[in-house]
Predict the structure of Probable membrane transporter protein.
Amino acid sequence: MFTFIAFAAGLVRGYSGFGFAMLMALGLMLRLPPAEAVPVALILDVACSVTLWPAALRVVHGRVLGRLLVGMLLAVPLGAWLLLWLPAHIMAPLVAVLCLCGGMLVLWRPSVATPVGQSMAWLAGLASGLATTMASAGGPPLMIYLLRSGLDARQLRGTAVLFFLASSGAALIGLGLAGVLNGALWRLALELALPALAGNLLGQWLHPRWQPLPLRVLVGGLLVLLSLGSLLRVLCV
C-alpha cells in the first residue's frame, strides 16, 4: 500500500510541482502516527525534488522566493517543537483540517482577483514553514499566496519547487535536532524512494502534454478530497 501511495504522490509532485509531502503524510498516517509519517514524507519530498531542480532554477522568481524563505526559517523551530510534543490523537485530525481548509481556500476565487503584493510573501513562508514542519502540510498556505501573486504558471511552479525543497530540508534539520529522526524512518524512506521517483518522472513527462484543468482546480480539488477522506477516517476510529 505504501508503495502505491509513494508512486501516486510522486506523480502529483512531478506534474504540479506541489503536494508530495502532504499526500505522502496523509497516506502514511493510515498506519503510522504523525511523528513518524511526517519525517518520512519530508525525506522523500527532498529526494523526489532532485529531478525538478534544473527546470525550476531557470524560471524561479528570485525576489519572491527569498522573502518566502525568510518567513519559513522563522517557523521551523516552533513547528518541530509542536510535532514532538502534541499527541497523535490531536495531530492526525489537525493535519486533515489544515489540508481541508487549505484546499478550499485554493479553490476559492474572489470576484475581484487583485494580485497579492510581494511584501506579503514572508507571511506565506511563515505559515507554510510552520505547517510543513509540524504536519508536512505547507502546500496550501504557499499555493494560496502564489496563485494570487501575479506570477505566470511557469514562475509559480518553479518557485514552489525550490521553496518546498528548502522548507522540507530545513524541517528535517529541525526534526533531527529535536530527536525525532531514527534509523527505522530512514529505512522506510529508502524503501519508498524508487516508486516515488518513478511517479515523479511520469508526472514531469505528463505536465507539458496533458493539462485538462487549471492548476488551481486540480490542486485544490485534490487537497479537499484527500483531506476529507483522512478526516473521516480519523473521526470514525
The chain has a mean pLDDT of 83.
